Fold each of these.
Amino acid sequence: MRWGTKATRANRPDPPAERALRFGELLGSHAQVLDLLDRAAALRGLAKRVREECGVHIGLAGLAESEELLVLRQWDGLWQGDATPGSTLHDLHVPIGLGLGGRVYEQLEPVWVDDYRRSDLITHDFDVPISADDVRSMMAVPMMLDGRTQGVLYAAMREPVGFSDRQLDTALEIAGTGALALQTASAAERQRQNAVSAERRRMASELHDSVGAQLFRMGAELRDLRNSVGGEAADLLARLDSLQDQLAETASTFRESVHALDHDEPPAGRLAAALTRDCAEFGKRTGISAQSVEIGPVAECDPQRGSVLLAVAREALLNVEKHSSASSVLISSVALDGGMAVSVADDGDGAGVRDSGGIGLRSAADRVGALGGTLSTVVNEDGGLTVRVWMPTP
């Protein structure tokens, strides 16, 4: 009986190895769920699958952003580097009919070339970005579902070789699952947008009942405490007066925020629209969640000050993209102290300014200072970095 017990135990999987295997499976399932909810995550996962499962140097995922335009939004295996728009395959805009992807988008059939720059099957509008990454052979397949094209998948090699039937079949299989993932992600995005108004009202109600009541109690207790302090404690009285002023300012900002949440989104000004647009482009480009919100009513800046505020926000986003391991970014705008303040907060490792040397932000600080504003950068207590800029408004 003992020998049998020993033999049975010997055949059992090693518990740590079994747990590691289960953990890996859970991570894979989690990634698949994210792909169904987030379009950028779906595209990023597709590019990685193409590269790994087709055994190629580069995987690319292009999104159909109109009936006439395809944009290469995610990639795996490309060489990184700073360049002017259109000189690399990063976020390359491909009109229908042009290049390899444009032809696939037009004909809705797989196309491949053994040597891209020498092929007479395609136009050569994109030879510069193709050469920048030393691409030679390339295959592209459409991602289609229910007669609608969601995008195009690419597999590329840095040497002139032919693609096998297995590689083509694998790419087509990935494209089929990719089309479903993109359609599901788009539906989820529409659902989130439709639920925004109801969610804002729910949040306003909860904040009013919880935080609002707490602020009221704190104010009442603070007033009672101040009244109980004798005149001999002048320093304590001064500190209590200062705290009371801060609490009043917090309560005012809170009421404005609740009011904004409880009403439909106000028409966006030029700066607000630009920040929202930058967040959307940042999210598509990096896969990092980015949102822009206004806290209370915010007056529009004059063009000069608005331009500087926007430049600071963009520089902060660039630092997050280049140096931080953040998964989300929040840009907030608020009317404050006779001016306007914009904050860019991320949940990364706080390394943005330290690793980049802060050159861009130092230059932006000079522009801010010339207009009477201030700029500061702080490391958040719970990780990440916040860049704050305040600008007086005339």
Amino acid sequence: MGELLRRLRKGAGLTGKELAQRARVAQPTISRMETGRLLPTPETVERVSAALQLDKAGRGELDALLIRLRDEVSRLKGGLAGREAANAARLRSAQRVVSFQPAMILTLLQTAEYARLALAFGRDVDEEDAAKAAAVRVEAQAVLFESGREFSFGCTTLATRPRRSSSSRV
């Protein structure tokens, strides 16, 4: 959102202070929106859109992004399962995914049980939330089979090597 807003502001030849004055909002509001530290209200977006004199397409792009961000924030408030849903939404919107995880099986390649354990490891989490989050993570793996996507995975041998007990011989 911030990147789009900055691009639109610069395209209009305005400084942050000038945009704030035209939109009748505080200058720090514009700055925080552009740096991603503030998710604006629909009213603020309306004021900024009017100040930028956006055409229908520009306003539509801004509105669509605001809706997507509000949805993601809502998911993030939903515990582990919400966070996994937000990650899955980002994954679905990507054409190319590059992932490196040095000490774990890559999230797109995890089994449901491994995902549940990985999500709960070292945390005091609700088991039901961890199970739901694991289900969302495994469901997101469907993108692996969609055409037009590119995946690059990297992992260390530690992630794939079976764990040995202290009594095992090498």
Amino acid sequence: MIVGVELFFVGIPVALAGSSVLLAWGSARHAYLRSRFLLWGAASAAFGLMVMAVIARATHEDKHYDDFGSALQSLAAINGGALLLAGLGPLTPWLLGVLRRLTARLSPAIRLAARDVARNSPRTAPPIAITMVMTAIAIAWMIVSVAEAAQTRAGYFPQARSGALVVDVRSDDPAVSRAAVQQELSGVPIAQRDAPNRRGHFSLEVKDLPDTESIEPEGFIGDRALLRYLTGDPDTPYDEGTAVVVTPNDIQVDTVTIFYTDDDQETELSSKSIPAIAVESADPYVNELFIPTKVVRDLGLGPEPIELIVDPSAHRTTEAEQERINQRLGGDLNTYVEREFQESAEWMGKVAAAIVVAVAGALIAGGQAGAGGRTRRVLLRVGAGSPLTLRMFAAGRAGWSMLCGTALGTFAGCVIGLFLAWPMTASIDWEVLPRVSFETPWWAIALLAAGLPVLAGVIAALPRPRRP
């Protein structure tokens, strides 16, 4: 079932984009039908553009989008991009002829290389179409990844103070979790977060608090060490009977009311009000309510440890230390270190792989331009038998093939990426985050478009040239 779904979501756009290779071959092979191939290609590209535009329009609003419906819209937009790529396939042999005419004033090696690539278009057009498709995929992937990263960064909310280690406590044996942390972080102070027993109800209410929704209803229950972790200030006043609102807001708080039952069968809530103060938090994301453990214990709610926290002010846990703690815990419990938003670099590897395939297509096209015996003999006479001339000829065939592929691929990749950025960043959460702008990586795109033909030419010129 899963394999079938993956084939559906991946196989269809791959097949559509891959058809550009066949259309490029057909347009080059049957020159007398080229106008018909170009017409088919124009229709496919226009329909693909229309599909992407409609999906982008349908997903441009900042609202909740259904999870399954959003996936279908994204798939439709991806297929629209694949249709655009398919439609550009027949342009490949046509563009080779246009580019060839632009070489009239260039060196003989480049001019003859461009002629070879264009003259042998039935063999060179298909691999150039592959270059076009992979270049477009690389650029579109780059744009979409940057857009998704910007949206994810805007919606990221830290789960703890920056650099803090949070370790879940084993309910049946809390000492096991503490021992694992102490063995690895010897001498480092550990704060403990408690929670009331789960048999009944427990909630907190703070009157006249501007932003009560961002405060957890169960608060942070603990001792002096936990309060210092929340405030980031070791001099924060601590009293076993006083609650503390730790917030970046400038507010005044006098009391906190605790509503509770000690049995889940009870329907009537008991309540208790305790004095409270407000303290400014060191971290702007910390907006929490601290309750001393003694208060909960006096209510008969039997507080139990649920988390251990290593204050980043005392020690910033490294990835290696976290891994060793995980090994000591045996994988039964979760550990988490707040390292703020970390942008994934996975997309870079995929872009690099697409670029490698694109360059390989150009090199194949350069090699498929023909044995070039007659052309090479003419070139040797013109260049006085210089090996450098032969290297320039090999570089010209590969670079010219790459130039043709990147010219079409860059255009298609920019169009597809900018259209796909809308459905790919549509919100499927009920709490909708407004769409944020992102910096389109134009410099990276320009570097690819200008640098890939040079790279292909340099690679093709590396082997020692063979004389005819």
Amino acid sequence: MSKFDDIRSFHDSEVNEALQSIARHPMMKALMNFTFPEVDESIWLKKFNDTHSIFDFQRNFISQTIRTILEKSSEGLTISGFDKLDKNTTYLFISNHRDIILDTSLLNLVLLESGLIMTSSAIGDNLVEKSFIHKLAKLNRNFLVQRGLPLRDQLKSSRLLSEYIFELLHQEKRSVWIAQREGRTKDGNDSTQQGVLKMIAMAAGNMSLTDFFKKLKIVPLSISYEYDPTDVLKMPQLLAKHNDEVYVKDKDEDFATMISGVLGQKKRIHLHAGDVLNSQFDHLGPDCDNKNKQLQAIAQMIDASIIQNYQLWPTNYIAYDLLGQTNHFSEKYTDQEKQLFERRLEMRIDTSDVISMQSFLSMYANPVKNKMMLKILN
């Protein structure tokens, strides 16, 4: 027994039994038929029998699933920055978060194909309430972030999570992926929550914050989708926020969002691995200074890297110009690209509703605005 048993992914010794327990589940059959449409069921069932590690499951099955998703629902994945990472070093990837499944899955495909250490990845326990999805997540090296706990239990859970992340990085020699904020960014404003960093820092012990965060080898990760396949699904929550209302999710909303994210059209996708944050922490000041200010400064470093390295697409520039009724970035897109985006807009929302229109456009335009605020664009 381990104190991490309630949140950890499967150990390799548990993989085969767990895989066999869901091998004939209808959702597994659908997943394999999607991934290997020309392959008889008996073939992949036999390969399941021979699968005894998470790496083998990811390499032989999940990586091919992600390649199939890219083939069917995108115009390709490009990457940058990963060539600067060391194949024998573990990193803490802190990432902007747009899609429940794909953000971390795409990263791990890139790491696999680059010969880099793949990640254990954080996932909210609210997303894996179905038994099949829970087991599949643990087979894909996900660990659980416990949501909706009372305050006292939340503190205990956060400390446990922090210790587990540190254990993965420095004992198990496993890279880690975690989103920069709780839940996905709905409005296109990628910003790091101090609370996430505060949780991570709980394992610092007697180390100064600067020494601790250096030890983590943080890589800010920028993930950019030309089309957000779940853009329209984010609208109800954005509108509730605009109207200062409490938003309550439907029972199966997260599951529907996962499916839409996987199957919906994304066009081009780009992942950029930022420089490892290290010497930047030397400018935070001595540890006796206000720790909240230090965490705020670290959050700003991560944000600056993610925003600077975010790949802007024609959709972002078009949305910015439509929102401001300008032609400021007209050289960044063609008339055809603008017409296609406007058509998408008309098909997905009521364009006569000004608030809906502004919220949808802002989702795509805010990355442009954020770069302008950093004086990366003019």
